[in-house]
Amino acid sequence: MNIVVCIKQVPDTETKIQINSDGSGIVTEGIKYVVNPYDEYALEEGVRLKEKFGGEVTVISLGPERAKEAIRNCLAVGADKGIHLNDPSFEGSDSYVTAKILAKAISEIPFDIILTGKQGVDFDNSQVFAYLANFLNLPFVSVVMDLELSSDLKSVTAKREGEGGEKEMIQIPLPAIIAAQKDLNQPRYASLPGIMKAKKKEIKNLTLSDLDFSADEVGEKGSRVKVKNYSLPPERKAGQIIQGEDPTEVCEILVKLLREEAKII
Amino acid sequence: MDFKLTEDQRMIKEEAKKFAQKRLAPLAQEFDEKEEIPKEIYKELSELGYMGMMLPEKYGGSNLDFISYILVMEEFAKACAALEISLSVHNSLVCDAIFQFGTEKQKEKYLPKLAKGEWIGAYSLTEPSAGTDAGSLKTTALLNKDYYLINGTKSFVTNGGIADLFVFFALTNPEAKSKGISCLLVEKNVESLNIGAKEKKMGIRGSDTRELSFEDCKIPKENLLGEQNHGLRIALTLLDSGRIGVGAQSVGIAQAALDEALEYSKQRVQFGQPICNFQAIQFKLADMATQIDAARLLVYRAAHLKSKNIRCSVEASMAKVFASEVANMVVNEAVQIHGGYGYMKEYAVERYFRDARVTEIYEGTSEAQRIVISKGLLK
Q1: CA A250 to chain centroid
Q2: Range of A20-34, A102-116, A217-231 with top mean pLDDT
Q3: B18, B23, B50 member nearest A192 (Cβ)
Q4: CA distance B221 to B150
Q5: What is the ipTM score, two decimals?
Q6: Beta-carbon separation of A76 and B57 below 8 A
Q7: Over the stretch A135-175, which tens digit does the pLDDT of each residue have?
Q8: Which of A215, A230, B34, B303 is most enclosed, with most CB atoms within 10 A?
């Protein structure tokens, strides 16, 4: 079974994000990067499928040079090969372009199932898997909490979480795309021998010309979403404590505030 | 001069940190209270390759270099110093002793079991009346045709109650004193080995410390490790890595205490503002951070020499004595920054304070380290 896992390197979830002085991006200095947590569930599922049905897990990631480290981490956990879509012109690609580049690279390798996280925790767009399905003309299920392959390996049954929290069971034929939710499994830790072996595994570097794109099809130029500027969300105001001895009096003030200031009653 | 870790070392440190923080740190208080680390934890550690860290793949090990091993120890100590010392003894004293001094037969017999965590190792040198003065051992192991007959008592044996194999020192030639010490491999289930009750300790309480007593206990002749009467050399060789390991443990405990104190100082409000706004607290934090960094650099320097197989007894002693004293200064200040809360068991610094104390005592007291260092100066 050929399993492809798409991963993204993102700032560690504990990073305190700061906006740069002209609002054109975030301050990247000092940021620690990790494998997107949702992608870890996708990877774990991929490695489990390999362990159960045999085959190979290929991890693919679009990102700058530092993203190699994230790929290497996935190889340490049990992926067999890595593909790094790495070209300066890819920088600034939106979800649409990212999916386009991923689709091109994936279409050139054999695959039975493609696993991704349900969203990247950096931009939280939650779009790449759907675009990818479109480009590759494949069915997909997103926000998957449970996954089961049919015994003939021709289809998968996926349990997904719907908008209102309801659970849906969806069966689709393979090859297909599955976007993982966090309950899908419990990702393993990389073992020390796994880390030591990771450096011997191949990471293929693919550039703009390897994938036959022109520079204006990718990056900011090819993107449909233009980011005008970044700003932090406004700070939440501190809560207000109503002082007073008499409960009736306090309640009257509270009702007045809820009606006139908060305007919720 | 290059202070950068290799890519492997960085990854190993990060992964050890992830495991230690997510899996061990939340349990550390429980290990401390129950004075026990459950077997399942060792099983998990084995599956991830932490029980044979520096052994070659051939014996089921993870083939780490010494610096990587030290990085793991530092991260583990940050989360749980008790587990760290247990692992440190197993890896750097037991596995390494057999790997360095064992015959191929001994290696094949013991190393895969130890690396897979099927067996846990302990190291037994100290006696009730032979601590720093290792030359005054009283336990005897007298060769009698095809076995050694052991009599005596060993104290403060880390992993004593959970170990399956003891790297054990005794006099094979009592008249020759320190030139008559040999190292033997003693399996747990041997007859006439009595493993005492668990010691009640001030700190690192999760680690299992026991007394061992031998009464006419017979150990097969082939369990001699290295050459007869040359045991002291083994003990001394292992000391360096043990000391660098305690240095790493000290740095880990100190860093954990600083992290807690820093966070607390941002949350704790007195006189209408977080206490980190006060210079009295800021200067404490600055000193703690600086001292920890200096200690870490000494530990890494010694680890670097060790990994290159360069003699480093003085450097290992410097790292050990400095880091352990820094750890005790830092945990003391961390409790001070916490005020009354720091004296309460709900706060992790209370445990760090107790855990740090032993770092100035075991693997050679601070005084013993100073003897090594001054001997290096005066020779």
Answers
A1: 48
A2: A102-116
A3: B50
A4: 12
A5: 0.91
A6: no
A7: 999 999 999 999 999 999 999 999 998 888 889 999 999 99
A8: B303
Cα nearest neighbour of A189 on chain B: B19
pLDDT at residue B135, as a whole number: 80
Percent of chain B with pLDDT over 70: 100
CB-CB neighbors (< 8 A) of B6 in chain A: none
CA distance B86 to A14: 31
| Phi/psi of residue A204, nearest 5 degrees | -90, 130
Interface-testing mutation among B8, B9, B64, B72, with chain A (most A C-beta atoms within 10 A):
B8
Instruction: Break chain B into its structural domains and give their ranges.
Output: 7-120, 122-231, 232-378
Specify whether B14 is catalytic.
no
Residues in B closer than 8 angstroms to A199, CB to CB, are: 7-8
Q: Between chains, do A192 and B7 touch, taking CB under 8 Å as contact?
A: no
Whether B320 and B344 have beta carbons less than 8 Å apart is answered as no
Q: Domain B7-120 belongs to what topology?
A: Butyryl-Coa Dehydrogenase, subunit A; domain 1 (1.10.540)
How near does any CA of chain B get to the CA of A75, in Å? 12
Query: Look-up: residue for tokens 């939280």?
Result: A124
CB contact under 8 A, B11 and A72: yes
pLDDT digit string, tens, across residues B60-103: 999 999 999 999 999 999 999 999 999 999 999 999 999 999 99
Task: For chain A, list the domains and their CATH numbers.
Answer: 2-222 (3.40.50.620), 238-265 (no CATH)
Q: Which residue in B8, B23, B47 is closest to A191 by CB distance?
A: B47
A161's CB contacts (< 8 A; 6+ apart) are A143, A145, A167, A168, A181
Closest-CA distance of chain A to residue B355, Å: 27
Is CATH 2.30.29.30 what the domain over B122-231 is classified as, yes or no?
A: no
pLDDT in tens, B137-189: 999 999 999 999 999 999 999 999 999 999 999 999 999 988 999 999 999 99
Q: Do A192 and B12 count as a contact with CB atoms less than 8 A apart? A: yes
Q: Considering CB atoms only, which of A69, A195, A199 is closest to B15?
A: A195
DSSP B63-110: ---HHHHHHHHHHHHHH-HHHHHHHHIIIIIIIHHHHHH--HHHHHHH
* Amino acid residing at A20: N
Q: Is the pLDDT of residue B379 over 90?
A: no
Which helix H or strand E contains A168, and what residues bound it? strand A167-173
Arithmetic mean of pLDDT, A65-78: 96
Q: Are B231 and B135 in contact (CB under 8 A)?
A: no
Mean pLDDT of the B19-24 span: 97
Mean pLDDT of chain B: 96
- Across the interface, whether the CB atoms of A199 and B48 are under 8 A apart is answered no
pLDDT tens for B320-370 read 999 999 999 999 999 999 999 999 999 999 999 999 999 999 999 999 999
Which of B11, B23, B47 lies nearest to residue A195, judging by beta carbons? B11
